[in-house]
Amino acid sequence: MYVFRLCCIAIITAVSAFILKSHKSELVPLCLTAGGIIIFLYVFDYLTQSVEFIKKFTQGTGIDNEIIRTIFKIMGIGFMVELTASSVKELGFDGVADKLVLCGKIILFVVSIPILSSTYNIIVSLINLV
Amino acid sequence: MLLIVILVAFCGITAAAENEEEKDGKDEIYDNITTLLEGLDLSELQKYLDENGDSYLLNFGSTAKDIVEYLIEGNLTTDYNGYLNELFSIIFKNVIALIPAFAAVTALGLLSAVMTAAEGSIIGKSTSKIVHLACYSLIILIVASMLVKIVGGCTECILNIKRQIEIITPILATLTVLTGGTSSAAIYQPSAIFLSGGAVEIVSNFIFPATIGVVVMNFMSHLNSQMSFSGVTALIKSIMKWAIGITVTVFSIFITSQSSASSLFDGIIFKATKYFVSNSVPIVGNFLSSGFDMLSSAGLLIKSSVGVCGIILLLFEIIQPIILLVSFSIILKIVGAIVQPIGENSLFGLLSDLSKDIEYFIAGLLTVAFMYALVIMLIINSANSFV
User: Fold this and answer.
1) Cβ of B38: how many Cβ atoms within 10 Å?
2) Residue A6 gets which letter from DSSP?
3) Cα(B369)–Cα(B321) distance, rounded to whole angstroms?
4) B259, B382 contact by CB (below 8 A)
5) Which of B162, B132, B95, B184 is nearest to B314 (CA)?
6) Cβ-defined contact of B155 to A62 (cutoff 8 Å)
7) What is the pLDDT of residues B298-354, one digit of tens each?
8) What are the chain A neighbours of B140 within 8 Å (beta carbons)?
9) Which residue in the set A54, A62, A109 is minimally distant from B107, CB to CB?
10) Which of A79, A108, A81, A48 lies closest to B137 in space, CA to CA?
11) What beta strand segments (E) does B159-312 contain?
12) What is the ipTM for the molecules in this complex?
């Protein structure tokens, strides 16, 4: 059902953009951006179920659940920033889009630090075993 | 008629006398066994059993002496149900616990594949790289946290085997001397020292750390494709192969050739002593010679029983880490096979390399176990031929 709705939203967005193109072409980028946001909101809602699934499985390994949440945060930030940047680019503001991507990368790096530090700690404990 | 009655009566008397003689011989051997067992120092074995309350040997008796006595009577039956239950308990307790973590690794692999699919069209390459780095870090974190537990178990297993060697071999060497294997004992004791001091140290201080080094370098190589350690890891693996091969070959050749030579020498000395006692001591010479045989037979029975105890302890010590390592390696290969078709070649490389590296832990454990089992088998079989 999710996929069906998703496809419907995509078709409606495309048809609306096509109609707007001949009557009010300046509204086309806005229409496409709105459609893209709605599609991704649907997908993120679907993704929360996967978070619970992975969280449940990693409980036995002794890894902090916060780290599992972080990986989804990272993916979410990546998608959001890139999509927004492409929408902003479509509106004709390339400079703003580039700045957004750069800021997004900085945020991604900062959010990744707990995972990287946990990986470092586990490798150190592996080395300390012998 | 009278003749038949006399013949039947005579046969009956002879059979009864033979039975009586057999019973007397059995009783004498049991008396000798009891006397020898009372004098034998099994305190270290008892201490080890007390510390390991879940040892399978405790199914045969509550004390070390009881267990040795139980095994002397040949009660080690082929209880396949008991062995299978022990095997299944290991599989269900430890191996099944690995599966959820690997399910999480597979799910993360799928997420990473989604990211790869979006690369270029929806997401920029540099952003995708950062997300991939985070995904791979998390996968390495999950796999390494399991590996830490397994390698910890392996190190503990090696230390326990070392302790078992230090407990069992002196008892076996004492019993070898008792059964006339003086020069055999002189060989087995240094070989046991080499085994516990040398081979165990080679495995625990070289093979295991080197394998961990290889695993860590593989992790680094897959986290950053620009950083490659393939040459170094190949070199370390090659050195490890040679070290294991040389250790096993040198030790096996040394101990088997030495033991066969010393066994022959001991046999000649034993027979010469018996001949000397039976011929040089007047009247009771033959009696003393037979008593010598009885005492040696009792010693051999105890030696075999203690050896079997050592083998059982070794088997139940090694089976758990080996099953865990083999399962871990197989599960890594399965997950690799799942993620490769969805486009995660790098993750497949990481998992399959790790699966191959794990085999060095298995090789290290099996080397120590093989060498220890060889020493026990040779000690059990020494002096058997000349009594």
Assistant:
1) 8
2) H
3) 12
4) yes
5) B162
6) no
7) 777 788 888 888 888 888 888 888 988 999 999 999 999 988 888 788 889 899 999
8) 119, 122-123
9) A54
10) A108
11) none
12) 0.73
